[in-house]
User: Fold this.
Amino acid sequence: MENILKGTSPQESHLHIKKSFCTMQPSETKLVEGRTFSSPTRITSRDSTQLLSCQTELNQTIPSLHRSDSLANQEQRPSSAIDSTHAMVVETRLTTADLDTLASNASEQATENTRAMLKRELVEELQPKYLRHNVWDDNDHFSKSSADWTETARPLPLIPESELANPIVSKTIEENPLLFDIVTPINVDHFEKLLHSHLNQPFVKSVCRGLCEGFWPWADSHIREYPDTLDLSYPKPENEDEAQFLCDQRDHEVFKGCFSEAFGDKLLPGMYCMPVFAIPKPHSTDLRMVTHQSAGKYSLNSMIPRDEITGYPLDNLRHLREFLLSMYHKDPTSPHTLFKSNVSEAYRLLPVHPYWQIKQVNRIDGSLHVDRNCAFGG
Assistant:
């Protein structure tokens, strides 16, 4: 008999966190939606009493939320796209040595290098987490870029045979072919020709295969007992602007073919429906639609081993400043023009395999749609 679990969103879990100890890794102290809470530690002199903030009692209880309820607990959701990033303010107090200290002689150059290194480390430590890799310094070092990584990357994975052998999922996909499709604007044949001289052809072929058949996100739905069908969708937002934005975004995705047409208000066997909501973009009043694929005990992201998806360098401002500084050192007097090429909705260009599409069902304004592409939040 099919195992169906409905309405067990993370808001329905009465989670009690009693203590947080200094010996725990940050990833082990989490509350609901994968958000890590840290307590600042104060460095004090030997004559003062140290604040043991890591042992503060939390004792927080998360109220339940059912699909029929209103979203009264909006604070449980990220309030912006960078809401999970918290700047930690570190208070330091310098003390002087009680005794005379002997130091060996050091060259002026070595001392300056040491000071520069300590200064850079201090600046990085005091920066908000999302800026720590964007501290500009004056050197000729080039960090590893995405292009460099592709030369040694392992091929992307095929869907496991155990997933293809799931009779419930296979039956739903076979009986509803119009709901599942591979949609991408990328010309795969031309893309493959452009990469014919790439040093890592196994990786190139795996990417092209994913563009044709849909990517599989390293997931294993058999790592523990997951329900066959799961509905964690939120009710329609009470805020009219958010509700209208979600409807407009849904219509846009249906027009592009990334969302299927609506197929009713009840999940078919084998489907998963994660919460969908709108959050403000950073430093803006504009909204962004987010699929919360880390929601609940049986979330989609919990099916993906973390070790398989870490270590992939994404090009960022660090690479840009390294290039700009290098160009300046080569010819500081020559004018340079910088062109920025932005790939709109880059992740949405990547289709996912139909056996993963069936787990990306979205409920918007009461209607259900299959999301066929990579989602922001996955």
Summary: The CA atoms of residues 29 and 43 lie 22 Å apart.
